[in-house]
Write a structure and sequence with these properties.
2 copies of one chain form a homodimer. Chain A is of the alpha/beta class and 214 residues long. In chain A, 43% of the residues lie in helices and 17% in strands. Chain A is built from 8 helices and 9 strands. In chain A, the strands form 2 sheets. A 7-stranded mixed β-sheet of chain A has the order 5-6-4-3-7-8-9. Chain A has a two-stranded antiparallel sheet with strand order 1-2. In chain A, a hairpin with a 2-residue loop joins strand 5 and strand 6. In chain A, helix 1 crosses helix 4 and helix 2 packs across helix 3. The longest helix of chain A has 19 residues. Chain A starts with 8 loop residues before the first helix and ends in a 5-residue tail after the last helix.
Chain lengths: 214, 214
């Protein structure tokens, strides 16, 4: 994959949305779209869209708009979705199982290779064909399978200890659902925190601002 | 609550982050913070922060910085977190239960009043003290309790029918975990979609851009 340095994280964070929208347009059979129509669909200005996509070398052809499949696939390559990164999940409670069952890791740049929990009732259960292992086996598993990423679906209190262990075991990225802020100052470790409550608070604002509450 | 018109959704979407950060600063006992320090903590420029907070009348005092608790509480009021909106959850599978157990609705502007599922095994189970009801009871429940918001933790295929029913029953806001795009063109209905896969794709990018994958 070509690397693209100095692209702002704000632009990066919009790419998955482009990817999703373009995928939906493909699914309904569309082949080309103008930046004006894309901007209407996505709620961004057309100039914003042109600027964003120019960061990566520009895909559009003046007057013809964008080839949807080409743009979709190229954004997929930029996001690295075609290069599966090995991942494990820590925590197979409701949240862990919801993530395993609902997320399409294979189409999002990852391959899920292991699931860990400390709850004896869950150990040896299979979820999507993967057997849940005891957290005591994390170290030996990592020595053999060398996962790059860990998805943390564990309580806040357990996160510091587990994330330190995982970093020692060679894990270099976290998708973090625990509400603990992993120290992302460690050189060469990236953390993507999921804060679902932010969108819940935004909904609260929008409900009240529009006087929809009775 | 005072309403604040014409504030861009981009600013609104940053307010929950301010709220979270300020809450964490309060928890460690801090009382004041300069916009420079706040900007460092949050990864935004100081001028961005001043601009954002000026949208709401400005809270800082030149040279003294922000009073953390005051700013936190005022953002809470702006977000409407002090005015509980009645909510119900549709879907009590892994995802629904994860949302019920992990989300602090009470401190996020909502009060959870009902849980619905069509799975006979789940009906009459209690989750956080609320009994799961059959989805066939949604209409009669809404007539009595008049919830404003529904949290949708159901498969994509079920969402169109259920969301139309809920709108008929007076629901005016959706926190939508299904991957179905609810038609948000209906007058006076707001939809907050949760796309967890966007942050997973961002993680894919960051892993590969930093060459962390082996």
């Amino acid at each position: 994959m070509p690397t693209h340095h100095n692209i702002s994280i704000a632009v990066i964070r919009r790419l998955p949305r482009y990817y999703r929208f373009l995928g939906e347009l493909m699914n309904v059979g569309l082949q080309r779209i103008s930046s004006a129509s894309l901007s209407e669909e996505m709620g961004l200005t057309a100039s914003q869209i042109r600027q964003d996509l120019n960061c990566f070398g520009g895909f559009g052809q003046q007057g013809y708009g964008y080839n949807i499949k080409e743009l979709h696939d190229q954004i997929g390559v930029i996001l690295g979705l075609d290069q599966p990164t090995k991942a494990i999940i820590i925590g197979a409670g409701n949240l862990g199982r919801a993530v395993i069952n609902h997320m399409d890791f294979g189409n999002r740049g990852f391959v899920l290779e292991g699931i860990f929990d400390q709850d004896k009732k869950l150990i040896n259960q299979e979820i999507k064909g993967i057997k849940v292992l005891d957290t005591s086996e994390i170290q030996s598993f990592c020595n053999v399978h060398k996962p790059t990423v860990a998805v943390l679906c564990i309580p806040k209190t357990a996160t510091e200890k587990i994330s330190n262990l995982l970093i020692e075991c060679g894990v270099r990225g976290f998708w973090n659902f625990s509400h603990y802020d992993i120290n992302s100052d460690v050189e060469g470790v990236v953390v993507e925190n999921v804060h679902m409550s932010d969108s819940l608070m935004t909904l609260s604002y929008r409900i009240k601002e529009a006087n929809l509450d009775k």
